[in-house]
Amino acid sequence: MMFVILFTYVFGGSIQVGGSLSSQDYREFLMAGIFAQTVTFATAGAGAGIAEDMHKGLVDRFRSLPMARGAVLTGRTLADLVQTALTLVVLAGVALLIGWRTSENAGKILAGFGLLLLLGYAFSWIGALIGLSVRTPEAATSGGLIWLFPLTFISNAFVDSNNLPTFFRHIAEWNPFSTTVQACRELFGNLPPGFEAPDAWPMQHPVLASVIWSVVILLGFRTLAVRKYRRAAG
Q1: β-strand partners of 20
Q2: Are 32 and 188 contacting, i.e. CB atoms less than 8 angstroms apart?
Q3: Distance of alpha carbon 77 from alpha carbon 131, whole angstroms
Q4: CA–CA separation, 145 vs 47, rounded Å?
Q5: Could you say which of 30, 131, 155, 158 is the most buried, measured as most Cβ atoms within 10 Å of its Cβ?
C-alpha cells in the first residue's frame, strides 16, 4: 500500500510510459508491477517461516509422522499461497479506491491474477530453499529480500523498460518478474496509449513466457528444496 501511494501520488505525474505523462495512465501501468512485487516479496516470509520451524524443532516432530518428506514443504508453501491471495484481494481493493481500472473481461482479469499467484507460488519455493539453508529466521528474511530488490527494480514494474540503459534493458526484458508484469498489463487492459512492447521474445509473448518461467522456477526450486529438506531432516 505504501508503494502504491508513493509511486501514484509522488512520482505518477513525472514518469512517462508510452507517450503519456498522464497520472491515470501511469496508475494503471503501475498496478501490475505492484501486484507482482507483492507476491514475490512473500518469498521472505516463506523462508523465515520455514527457518523458524527448523529452529524450533518442529521438523523433528514431523519426522516421526507417516508422511512424505516433501509434504511438509508443500503444505507450508500452499498456506503461504492462500495468504498471498488474501493480500492481493486487499491490495486490489486499495487500487480500485485510488482509481485503478481494468478494461478487459472477467476471464482475462482472473487469468492475470492467476499468473500472479503462480509466480508467487514458484517464488515461495525459492524462499523455502533459503529457509532451509540458513540457521535463523532473521537470516532467512535478509536472504529472501536482498536479491528481490534488484530483481523487481531492474524490470518494467515501475518504468517503461524501453527507457532503461541498454544493459539493464536487456536484463529487464528477460526478467521473469517483468514477463509476468507485462502479461498482467495485457490481461488487465492496462497498456498505456502509444506503448510499444520491446522486441524481446518474452515481451512479445508475455503470457506464455510467464507460465514457462513460473513452471521452470517452481519445478527447479521445489526439487532443490525437497532434497535439502530430506538431508536436514535425515
Answers
A1: 17
A2: yes
A3: 12
A4: 10
A5: 131
